Amino acid sequence: LNHPNIAQIYGIEESASIRAIVMELVPGEDLSARIAKGPIPLAEALPLARQVADALEAAHENGIVHRDLKPANVKVTTDGRIKILDFGLAKLGTAGATGSGGSDSGSPTLTAATEVGTILGTAAYMAPEQAEGKNVDKRADVWAFGVLLYEMLTGRSLFTGASTTEVLAAVIRDTPDWSALPADVSPAVRRLLARCLAKDPKRRLRDIGDARFELEEMDAAGEHPDAQKTRFAVPVWVLAIAVLVAGTLGAVLMVGRPSETPPGAGTRRAAIELGSLSDSRTFSFPMALSGDGSLLVYTVGRASGSPLYARRLDSLEARPIEGTAGAVGPFLSRDGRLIGFEREGGIFSVPLAGGPVVHARGSAHLPGGSPAWTEDGRIVLTSSSGALVSFNADGSSPRTLTTPSPGERHLSPFPLPGGRTILFTAVGADPREARLAAVSLADGQVRSLVDGGASTGQFADGYLVYARPDQRLMAVLFDATRVEKTGVPQPLPDRVTWTRFGIAHFSVAPGVLVYFPPAVTSLVEVDRGGGRQTLWTDRQWHHPRYSPDGTRIVVDVTGDDGERDVWVFDRALKTLSRTTRIGDAHDPSWLPDGRSVSFLSFKSGGVPLLVARADGTSPPEPLRLGSGFFPEDLVNPGGWIRDGSAYVGGVQDRGSPSDLWLLPGDGS
After folding, report:
1. What integer is the mean pLDDT of 7-35?
2. Which of 166, 448, 535, 606 is the most buried (most CB within 10 A)?
């Protein structure tokens, strides 16, 4: 190879059976020494990263994959030029080749023969497929490039461990700590890192040349703190993150920003611990933000019977709201004077300043996000038929606003300014294919805004903000008067809770974003004496169930990309294996034979319950439970009785409260 950013090899010499490479002498320090001093400023790091990408692109074009890219193999000359060293050592498998210096001292280059099934490279910089001993291609270098850029910006390792084995396990299993990135790292840089560090190589950036091109575009646009004042295509919301422990704690994150300040300057941040949220996270919005962004109302869980709480964002105190015990799904009137909520018995409203509670509707709506209040004082919500309906605050003058297609439901209404249009989410059999739409209150015309995987649209600061199934918040310039997008959608820096019903838990107002981060939890086993053992960490675990013989645990897991599938944990081997790969598999239960599991999937159309071998060796097969049974009916999954003849679950019969039903497995 002959490239300005690759150390040149002049020849190979042999003397007395000793072989030597004659190589260019490169002055300066390697990147591991530079990173050891602390994070590299963005304005310095991006030009260095661009040179690394340029060198890798030249190598890949010649059919060469480095496979051991790391800070110790990258030198920075005194004039700021990058030189990549040790090209091909991992590929050649030279015995005893190790990384040198800096942070790599405890993570040596692992070398062996080049066939599939062996591990080559440095543990902390290996791509997941490389760490598993699989065959690798140029996308392994793309991963290592992402690790390198992450470490340059944060001054810390992406994954660590007490041993090489633990590091490899972290590479395969763990999620990058995006909160470690400095506040001045823009959405464009974060997006590039996420694309490089995708666990699945099929979802990773395919060519390092694309990374080089993106870095050049950032450089041309002035991608550094001094140039980030007004040029972003998305609102400059800087997000904080909160970790949820074992799925029992919640946090609402709020960020305000002055309209003409760079990221991180003058930003207000807060995280509010809410305690146990029960099922309110799934079925209704747990919080509501006033239209001017000054007031937050939230719930701490239905099970405790606690009231709603109100907190002004310029205050450290929250106060309970009288008359709201057991309430969930709060929603505020446009002027902020009335609070609506749901609890047993239907939909109610109460003045924020105190006063009588008004019963607005006799039956609660199906899972559809929180209702909304229009500018003329009417309440809009999802009816039992799946349509949007509106009525006065006392329940009078009901009106149907939309007519869903067969199998479709209209969720999460949000009135646009002016009072003439309502945004909503249209969800069919697969919530991951939801679309954003708007209905005109004047003539009932419906207009699609974002097709194929969009949830919970809201409008503020001239932007339409919505969520994707991968839990990423998106923002696009939007003309609320003409009800149309005027820009290109761009991702916001962090992710949000996105439920299997196609509901995302966030809210926006001028200068403020409030959201629930995805629940990063641990799988924990507790014995009868109260002893605790953490079996696995740092994933979004749901619905663990012991196998009939107690040796395994079936659980469904949500990945970084928002895909949800069934996995099985072996308690003796401490291993986790995947059962399904359909992206929407949840609420698993063991069949009595201990060899198969059932689970729910809305991708299955008219048959929500499927069965598959627990070891993943058979494709899922649909299982019909009773005649006239529909996917949305089974709202509380249960399990199989011991002889395997029937399934017990909570069934909601067309909008009525759910009851326990015995559903025979033979379809009767």
Report:
1. 88
2. 535
